[in-house]
From TrEMBL:
This is ABC transporter ATP-binding protein. Keywords: ATP-binding, Cell membrane, Membrane, Nucleotide-binding, Transport. InterPro entries: AAA+_ATPase (IPR003593), ABC_SmlMolc_Importer (IPR050093), ABC_transporter-like_ATP-bd (IPR003439), ABC_transporter-like_CS (IPR017871), Mo/tungstate-bd_C_term_dom (IPR008995), P-loop_NTPase (IPR027417), Transp-assoc_OB_typ2 (IPR013611). PANTHER family: SPERMIDINE/PUTRESCINE IMPORT ATP-BINDING PROTEIN POTA (PTHR42781), SPERMIDINE_PUTRESCINE IMPORT ATP-BINDING PROTEIN POTA (PTHR42781:SF4). The keyword Calcium does not apply. GO terms for molecular function: ATP binding. Residues 5-239 form the ABC transporter domain.
Length: 348
Protein backbone atom coordinates (compact mmCIF):
# COMPACT_ATOMS: atom_id res chain seq x y z
CA UNK A 1 0.00 0.00 0.00
CA UNK A 2 1.39 3.41 -0.86
CA UNK A 3 2.15 5.78 1.92
CA UNK A 4 -0.11 8.62 2.88
CA UNK A 5 2.33 10.08 5.39
CA UNK A 6 5.84 8.98 6.24
CA UNK A 7 8.12 10.30 8.99
CA UNK A 8 11.80 9.40 8.77
CA UNK A 9 13.76 9.98 11.96
CA UNK A 10 12.12 13.34 12.63
CA UNK A 11 13.23 15.55 15.53
CA UNK A 12 11.85 18.88 16.72
CA UNK A 13 13.41 21.45 19.02
CA UNK A 14 11.50 24.67 19.67
CA UNK A 15 13.42 27.94 19.60
CA UNK A 16 17.03 28.59 18.72
CA UNK A 17 18.80 27.40 21.90
CA UNK A 18 20.66 24.21 20.89
CA UNK A 19 20.78 23.06 24.52
CA UNK A 20 16.96 23.14 24.81
CA UNK A 21 15.39 19.66 25.06
CA UNK A 22 13.90 18.06 21.96
CA UNK A 23 10.08 17.98 21.93
CA UNK A 24 10.24 15.10 19.40
CA UNK A 25 13.28 12.84 19.50
CA UNK A 26 13.73 11.03 16.20
CA UNK A 27 10.44 9.36 15.31
CA UNK A 28 9.67 7.22 12.25
CA UNK A 29 6.24 5.96 11.24
CA UNK A 30 3.86 5.55 8.30
CA UNK A 31 0.18 6.34 7.90
CA UNK A 32 -1.05 4.19 4.98
CA UNK A 33 -3.48 5.74 2.48
CA UNK A 34 -7.13 5.34 3.43
CA UNK A 35 -6.46 4.51 7.08
CA UNK A 36 -6.84 6.25 10.40
CA UNK A 37 -3.78 6.48 12.66
CA UNK A 38 -4.06 7.85 16.17
CA UNK A 39 -1.19 9.52 17.97
CA UNK A 40 -1.84 8.80 21.62
CA UNK A 41 0.02 9.80 24.76
CA UNK A 42 0.02 11.84 27.95
CA UNK A 43 0.22 15.62 28.05
CA UNK A 44 3.51 16.99 26.74
CA UNK A 45 4.61 13.78 24.96
CA UNK A 46 4.82 15.53 21.58
CA UNK A 47 1.52 14.57 19.91
CA UNK A 48 0.49 18.04 18.84
CA UNK A 49 4.01 18.89 17.71
CA UNK A 50 3.96 15.77 15.50
CA UNK A 51 0.56 16.65 14.04
CA UNK A 52 1.64 20.24 13.38
CA UNK A 53 4.70 18.94 11.54
CA UNK A 54 2.41 16.83 9.32
CA UNK A 55 0.35 19.96 8.64
CA UNK A 56 3.45 22.04 7.86
CA UNK A 57 2.70 24.42 10.74
CA UNK A 58 6.03 23.48 12.38
CA UNK A 59 9.17 22.44 10.54
CA UNK A 60 11.33 19.56 11.79
CA UNK A 61 14.78 20.26 13.24
CA UNK A 62 16.05 17.17 11.39
CA UNK A 63 14.66 14.21 9.48
CA UNK A 64 12.26 13.97 6.54
CA UNK A 65 8.49 14.04 6.02
CA UNK A 66 6.98 12.46 2.89
CA UNK A 67 3.42 12.54 1.60
CA UNK A 68 2.34 10.29 -1.23
CA UNK A 69 6.03 9.50 -1.71
CA UNK A 70 6.91 13.20 -2.19
CA UNK A 71 9.35 14.93 0.18
CA UNK A 72 7.34 17.77 1.76
CA UNK A 73 9.76 18.53 4.63
CA UNK A 74 10.33 22.13 3.61
CA UNK A 75 6.86 22.86 2.18
CA UNK A 76 4.36 25.14 3.92
CA UNK A 77 0.79 24.17 4.88
CA UNK A 78 -0.75 25.49 1.66
CA UNK A 79 1.50 23.29 -0.49
CA UNK A 80 0.65 20.03 1.28
CA UNK A 81 -3.04 19.40 0.51
CA UNK A 82 -3.78 18.83 4.19
CA UNK A 83 -6.77 19.97 6.26
CA UNK A 84 -6.71 20.22 10.03
CA UNK A 85 -9.52 20.23 12.58
CA UNK A 86 -8.61 21.74 15.90
CA UNK A 87 -9.75 21.28 19.49
CA UNK A 88 -11.98 24.34 19.23
CA UNK A 89 -13.59 24.01 15.84
CA UNK A 90 -13.37 27.79 15.36
CA UNK A 91 -16.33 28.30 13.05
CA UNK A 92 -16.70 31.91 11.93
CA UNK A 93 -19.52 33.10 14.23
CA UNK A 94 -20.89 35.75 11.83
CA UNK A 95 -21.05 33.37 8.84
CA UNK A 96 -23.87 30.89 8.31
CA UNK A 97 -23.29 27.18 7.77
CA UNK A 98 -22.96 27.28 3.99
CA UNK A 99 -20.59 30.28 4.14
CA UNK A 100 -18.45 28.59 6.78
CA UNK A 101 -18.14 25.45 4.68
CA UNK A 102 -17.52 27.39 1.46
CA UNK A 103 -14.94 29.75 2.95
CA UNK A 104 -11.84 27.79 1.92
CA UNK A 105 -13.11 27.35 -1.64
CA UNK A 106 -13.87 31.08 -1.87
CA UNK A 107 -10.32 31.84 -0.74
CA UNK A 108 -8.97 29.61 -3.50
CA UNK A 109 -11.03 31.48 -6.11
CA UNK A 110 -13.64 28.82 -6.89
CA UNK A 111 -16.79 30.18 -8.62
CA UNK A 112 -19.84 31.00 -6.53
CA UNK A 113 -22.18 28.37 -8.01
CA UNK A 114 -19.61 25.66 -7.60
CA UNK A 115 -18.89 26.71 -4.00
CA UNK A 116 -22.57 26.35 -3.09
CA UNK A 117 -22.88 22.99 -4.87
CA UNK A 118 -19.75 21.50 -3.30
CA UNK A 119 -20.58 22.90 0.16
CA UNK A 120 -24.10 21.35 0.00
CA UNK A 121 -22.76 18.00 -1.19
CA UNK A 122 -20.21 17.90 1.62
CA UNK A 123 -22.78 18.92 4.24
CA UNK A 124 -25.00 16.09 3.00
CA UNK A 125 -22.09 13.63 3.32
CA UNK A 126 -21.78 14.51 7.01
CA UNK A 127 -25.56 14.23 7.47
CA UNK A 128 -26.30 17.93 7.76
CA UNK A 129 -29.06 19.10 5.42
CA UNK A 130 -31.48 22.02 5.86
CA UNK A 131 -29.13 23.95 8.13
CA UNK A 132 -27.53 26.12 5.43
CA UNK A 133 -28.73 29.48 6.72
CA UNK A 134 -28.12 28.89 10.44
CA UNK A 135 -25.39 30.65 12.37
CA UNK A 136 -23.03 28.51 14.48
CA UNK A 137 -24.67 29.86 17.66
CA UNK A 138 -27.95 28.31 16.47
CA UNK A 139 -26.45 24.79 16.26
CA UNK A 140 -25.82 22.06 18.84
CA UNK A 141 -22.26 21.04 19.69
CA UNK A 142 -22.54 17.96 17.49
CA UNK A 143 -23.90 19.97 14.57
CA UNK A 144 -21.07 22.51 14.90
CA UNK A 145 -18.66 19.61 14.86
CA UNK A 146 -20.16 18.36 11.59
CA UNK A 147 -19.93 21.81 10.01
CA UNK A 148 -16.26 21.95 10.99
CA UNK A 149 -15.76 18.50 9.49
CA UNK A 150 -17.53 19.54 6.28
CA UNK A 151 -15.38 22.67 6.12
CA UNK A 152 -12.25 20.52 6.24
CA UNK A 153 -13.59 17.88 3.81
CA UNK A 154 -14.85 20.27 1.14
CA UNK A 155 -11.26 21.03 0.16
CA UNK A 156 -10.78 17.34 -0.68
CA UNK A 157 -7.51 17.08 1.20
CA UNK A 158 -5.18 14.13 0.67
CA UNK A 159 -4.75 14.01 4.42
CA UNK A 160 -7.11 15.07 7.20
CA UNK A 161 -5.73 15.90 10.64
CA UNK A 162 -7.65 15.99 13.92
CA UNK A 163 -6.29 17.55 17.10
CA UNK A 164 -8.38 16.31 20.05
CA UNK A 165 -11.55 16.99 18.02
CA UNK A 166 -13.96 15.72 20.66
CA UNK A 167 -12.57 17.29 23.82
CA UNK A 168 -15.24 20.03 23.90
CA UNK A 169 -18.14 17.58 23.84
CA UNK A 170 -20.01 15.77 26.59
CA UNK A 171 -19.48 12.01 27.03
CA UNK A 172 -22.49 10.86 25.00
CA UNK A 173 -21.85 13.17 22.07
CA UNK A 174 -18.18 12.24 22.17
CA UNK A 175 -19.10 8.62 21.60
CA UNK A 176 -21.54 9.50 18.81
CA UNK A 177 -19.10 11.79 17.04
CA UNK A 178 -16.21 9.35 17.21
CA UNK A 179 -18.41 6.76 15.52
CA UNK A 180 -19.34 9.33 12.88
CA UNK A 181 -15.75 10.33 12.23
CA UNK A 182 -14.75 6.69 11.92
CA UNK A 183 -17.74 5.88 9.68
CA UNK A 184 -17.04 8.82 7.41
CA UNK A 185 -13.33 8.04 7.25
CA UNK A 186 -14.06 4.47 6.20
CA UNK A 187 -16.84 5.37 3.76
CA UNK A 188 -14.82 8.05 2.00
CA UNK A 189 -11.47 6.22 2.33
CA UNK A 190 -9.85 9.21 4.01
CA UNK A 191 -6.25 9.23 5.21
CA UNK A 192 -6.40 10.55 8.76
CA UNK A 193 -3.95 11.34 11.56
CA UNK A 194 -5.79 11.85 14.83
CA UNK A 195 -4.38 13.14 18.12
CA UNK A 196 -5.94 12.20 21.44
CA UNK A 197 -4.91 11.52 25.02
CA UNK A 198 -7.98 9.27 25.51
CA UNK A 199 -7.12 5.59 25.11
CA UNK A 200 -10.70 4.38 24.72
CA UNK A 201 -11.23 6.89 21.90
CA UNK A 202 -8.01 5.66 20.27
CA UNK A 203 -9.09 2.01 20.57
CA UNK A 204 -12.50 2.78 19.08
CA UNK A 205 -11.51 4.74 15.97
CA UNK A 206 -8.06 3.56 14.87
CA UNK A 207 -6.56 1.23 12.30
CA UNK A 208 -3.19 1.98 13.87
CA UNK A 209 -2.15 3.61 17.14
CA UNK A 210 1.19 5.30 17.79
CA UNK A 211 1.81 5.62 21.54
CA UNK A 212 4.20 8.46 22.37
CA UNK A 213 6.04 9.11 25.63
CA UNK A 214 8.47 11.97 26.24
CA UNK A 215 9.03 12.68 22.54
CA UNK A 216 9.64 9.09 21.43
CA UNK A 217 7.38 6.35 20.07
CA UNK A 218 6.79 3.82 22.83
CA UNK A 219 4.96 1.37 20.53
CA UNK A 220 3.03 1.24 17.26
CA UNK A 221 0.35 -1.30 16.39
CA UNK A 222 -3.31 -2.08 15.89
CA UNK A 223 -5.63 -1.44 18.85
CA UNK A 224 -5.70 -5.20 19.50
CA UNK A 225 -1.91 -5.50 19.46
CA UNK A 226 -1.39 -2.60 21.84
CA UNK A 227 -4.01 -3.83 24.30
CA UNK A 228 -3.15 -7.52 24.23
CA UNK A 229 0.60 -7.32 23.70
CA UNK A 230 2.05 -4.17 25.24
CA UNK A 231 5.85 -4.19 25.07
CA UNK A 232 6.43 -1.96 28.10
CA UNK A 233 4.92 -1.20 31.46
CA UNK A 234 4.14 2.29 30.18
CA UNK A 235 2.06 1.03 27.24
CA UNK A 236 0.38 -1.65 29.38
CA UNK A 237 -0.71 1.01 31.87
CA UNK A 238 -1.65 3.60 29.28
CA UNK A 239 -3.75 1.26 27.10
CA UNK A 240 -6.23 0.34 29.80
CA UNK A 241 -6.05 -1.16 33.27
CA UNK A 242 -3.19 -3.45 34.24
CA UNK A 243 -1.74 -4.78 37.50
CA UNK A 244 2.05 -4.96 37.15
CA UNK A 245 4.25 -7.28 39.24
CA UNK A 246 7.94 -8.16 39.37
CA UNK A 247 8.53 -11.73 38.19
CA UNK A 248 11.28 -14.03 36.90
CA UNK A 249 11.54 -15.49 33.40
CA UNK A 250 13.08 -18.98 33.32
CA UNK A 251 15.27 -20.47 30.61
CA UNK A 252 12.39 -22.78 29.62
CA UNK A 253 10.29 -19.72 28.70
CA UNK A 254 8.02 -19.95 31.69
CA UNK A 255 7.62 -17.10 34.14
CA UNK A 256 7.48 -17.39 37.93
CA UNK A 257 5.01 -14.97 39.51
CA UNK A 258 4.75 -15.67 43.25
CA UNK A 259 3.19 -19.15 43.52
CA UNK A 260 2.07 -19.08 39.86
CA UNK A 261 4.02 -20.60 36.99
CA UNK A 262 2.96 -18.83 33.80
CA UNK A 263 3.39 -20.01 30.22
CA UNK A 264 3.25 -16.71 28.35
CA UNK A 265 2.47 -16.70 24.64
CA UNK A 266 5.61 -14.68 23.89
CA UNK A 267 8.96 -15.60 25.35
CA UNK A 268 11.13 -13.28 27.40
CA UNK A 269 14.90 -13.17 28.06
CA UNK A 270 15.58 -15.21 31.22
CA UNK A 271 16.00 -13.10 34.36
CA UNK A 272 13.98 -10.43 36.14
CA UNK A 273 10.92 -9.22 34.20
CA UNK A 274 7.59 -7.63 34.92
CA UNK A 275 4.20 -9.16 34.27
CA UNK A 276 1.29 -6.89 33.32
CA UNK A 277 -2.12 -8.46 33.85
CA UNK A 278 -5.45 -7.18 32.50
CA UNK A 279 -8.27 -7.26 35.07
CA UNK A 280 -10.30 -9.73 32.97
CA UNK A 281 -7.40 -12.22 32.79
CA UNK A 282 -7.77 -13.47 36.37
CA UNK A 283 -9.67 -16.67 37.14
CA UNK A 284 -11.18 -16.78 40.61
CA UNK A 285 -11.37 -19.87 42.82
CA UNK A 286 -9.23 -22.43 40.94
CA UNK A 287 -6.93 -24.75 42.92
CA UNK A 288 -3.21 -23.97 43.41
CA UNK A 289 -3.70 -20.28 42.88
CA UNK A 290 -2.50 -17.13 44.54
CA UNK A 291 -4.25 -16.75 47.92
CA UNK A 292 -6.42 -13.63 47.82
CA UNK A 293 -8.73 -11.77 50.20
CA UNK A 294 -11.53 -9.64 48.82
CA UNK A 295 -11.11 -6.04 49.91
CA UNK A 296 -13.83 -4.36 47.82
CA UNK A 297 -16.51 -5.28 45.31
CA UNK A 298 -18.69 -3.27 42.95
CA UNK A 299 -21.54 -4.48 40.74
CA UNK A 300 -21.49 -2.62 37.41
CA UNK A 301 -24.40 -4.17 35.53
CA UNK A 302 -22.72 -6.61 33.15
CA UNK A 303 -19.79 -7.41 35.44
CA UNK A 304 -18.26 -7.20 38.90
CA UNK A 305 -15.15 -5.24 39.78
CA UNK A 306 -13.16 -6.74 42.63
CA UNK A 307 -10.17 -5.48 44.57
CA UNK A 308 -8.19 -8.31 46.18
CA UNK A 309 -5.28 -8.21 48.62
CA UNK A 310 -2.58 -10.77 47.84
CA UNK A 311 1.04 -11.45 48.80
CA UNK A 312 1.98 -9.81 45.46
CA UNK A 313 0.08 -6.63 46.34
CA UNK A 314 -3.37 -5.35 45.41
CA UNK A 315 -4.99 -7.02 42.40
CA UNK A 316 -7.82 -5.53 40.34
CA UNK A 317 -10.17 -8.12 38.81
CA UNK A 318 -13.11 -7.84 36.44
CA UNK A 319 -15.48 -10.82 36.42
CA UNK A 320 -18.44 -11.41 34.13
CA UNK A 321 -19.47 -14.45 36.18
CA UNK A 322 -22.63 -12.87 37.55
CA UNK A 323 -23.84 -16.12 39.11
CA UNK A 324 -21.04 -16.00 41.66
CA UNK A 325 -20.76 -13.02 43.92
CA UNK A 326 -18.04 -12.68 46.55
CA UNK A 327 -18.53 -10.70 49.76
CA UNK A 328 -15.87 -8.44 51.23
CA UNK A 329 -13.51 -10.49 53.41
CA UNK A 330 -13.97 -13.69 51.32
CA UNK A 331 -10.85 -15.85 51.00
CA UNK A 332 -10.20 -17.40 47.58
CA UNK A 333 -7.45 -17.94 44.99
CA UNK A 334 -6.49 -16.29 41.73
CA UNK A 335 -4.94 -17.97 38.69
CA UNK A 336 -4.00 -16.82 35.20
CA UNK A 337 -4.35 -18.23 31.69
CA UNK A 338 -2.42 -16.86 28.70
CA UNK A 339 -4.78 -14.13 27.49
CA UNK A 340 -4.37 -10.70 29.03
CA UNK A 341 -0.96 -11.53 30.47
CA UNK A 342 2.09 -9.71 29.07
CA UNK A 343 5.73 -10.07 30.03
CA UNK A 344 7.52 -6.72 29.76
CA UNK A 345 11.10 -5.67 30.55
CA UNK A 346 11.98 -4.23 33.94
CA UNK A 347 12.26 -0.45 33.68
CA UNK A 348 10.48 -0.36 30.31
P1 LIG B 1 -0.97 18.11 25.24
O1 LIG B 1 -1.74 16.85 25.26
O2 LIG B 1 -0.83 18.74 26.58
O3 LIG B 1 -1.41 19.07 24.18
P2 LIG B 1 1.21 17.16 23.53
O4 LIG B 1 1.50 15.72 23.69
O5 LIG B 1 0.39 17.57 22.38
O6 LIG B 1 0.56 17.71 24.88
P3 LIG B 1 3.16 19.04 22.60
O7 LIG B 1 2.23 20.20 22.61
O8 LIG B 1 3.55 18.49 21.28
O9 LIG B 1 2.62 17.88 23.52
O10 LIG B 1 4.47 19.47 23.40
C1 LIG B 1 5.65 18.68 23.46
C2 LIG B 1 6.73 19.46 24.21
O11 LIG B 1 7.10 20.63 23.47
C3 LIG B 1 6.28 19.94 25.58
O12 LIG B 1 7.38 19.83 26.46
C4 LIG B 1 5.93 21.41 25.34
O13 LIG B 1 6.13 22.17 26.50
C5 LIG B 1 6.88 21.80 24.23
N1 LIG B 1 6.33 22.84 23.35
C6 LIG B 1 5.17 22.75 22.65
N2 LIG B 1 4.96 23.86 21.92
C7 LIG B 1 6.01 24.68 22.16
C8 LIG B 1 6.38 25.98 21.70
N3 LIG B 1 5.63 26.66 20.82
N4 LIG B 1 7.53 26.50 22.18
C9 LIG B 1 8.31 25.83 23.06
N5 LIG B 1 8.02 24.60 23.52
C10 LIG B 1 6.89 24.02 23.09
Amino acid sequence: MSNGIEFRNVTKRYGTDPSAPLAVKGISFEVPVGTLTTILGPSGCGKTTTLRMIAGLESPTSGAILMGGRDVTTLGPAERNVSMMFQSYALFPHMNVIENVGYGLKMSGVKKDEIARRARETLASVGLVDFDERLPSELSGGQQQRVALARALVLEPAVLLFDEPLSNLDARLRREMREEIRGLQQRLGLTVAYVTHDQSEALAVSDQIIVMDHGVIAQTGTPEQLYSRPESEFVAGFMGEASVFPATAQADGRVVLGPLLLAPRHSATPGPVKVAVRPEAWVIGEPAGLPATLRKAAYLGGYYEYGFDTALGPVFVVSTDLARKFGVGAETTLTLGTHGVSVVPVGG
